[in-house]
Amino acid sequence: MIESNITDWRHTVMPAVFTWLKESKSGAIEIDLDATQKYAAGVLKAQGKGGSRMGGLVGSGTLGENSYLSSEQRVSLLKALSDVAKDYNVPLISGAAAETKEELAKIVEELATVGVDTVMVMPPKTKMVPSEEEMYAYYELSEATANDVGVTIMPYNNPDAAGYHSLSTDLLKRLAVLPKVTALKISTIDVSIIETLMLENRDLKVLAGVDTVTVHAGLAGAYGGITGVGCIFPKASVTMQEYVTNGEWAEANKISQALNSISYLDAQPLLMEYLKFAFGIHHNDAAGGLRTFGKKLTQQQIDDVRARYILAKERLELLDLID
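and the corresponding structure tokens:
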């Protein structure tokens, strides 16, 4: 086991790793578990300038093609990533969403059996917007289930890019005090939500989930964050979080500005497709980066992502932040 220098993973940045795909002999697209493990390990291995590393591993999230995976695919993927997380002594985090609270509870139970430590619970996948009490009951049952199976949960508010139902500030405050809620993930460019929550309760553990606002979220009170861009440029992402944690805002902002062109993609509806392609470019596997269960990118989108990646890489090279 590789020793970790992290005392509390919630004070760090964590990569939402991509699920790498390959073409089988029959021509079908399937998960490439070996490649997914390899790239996840590469991200966890990277160190910031201050010597710290990523504090957790997020698998089968929005960037991991979660919405397109079958239950069997998700289980095999998380079993593979659990081995990587254990090697680097970090918790494994995974997303979960369902239409009903009962379905969600079953997913939480299943994830606990494959080595997941914390479940990011997205709002219900319903067309109709649930009432506050319906939403609370949905999360309350997932928290009770987490308690029964020995894991924790992280309510996940992501109304901007992913189109999930929004969790109100009042609801987030109610959820935050449930015993098995280890943190709140706030994925929005409106960081005033984080500031409002922290003013109400300074002991809250809030994680930012949009790369464009890492520094601003830290100023508002976020402890750490979950990153997609950090999978592509882990040294830069970890170093930026080091500066945020230490309150070195000017230095953190230099990195944020260097990443600006590509971080922008993390707040777009096609964030998974965009960032996965950029990751493929970074690893000299652009074709693999375009292989997804999601939307197929147009040539204009491909050209835009490539230009944004190149600009970010050039800026980071000047800061000595390319791995």
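(Above: one complete record from the training split.) The chain has 13 helices and ten strands.
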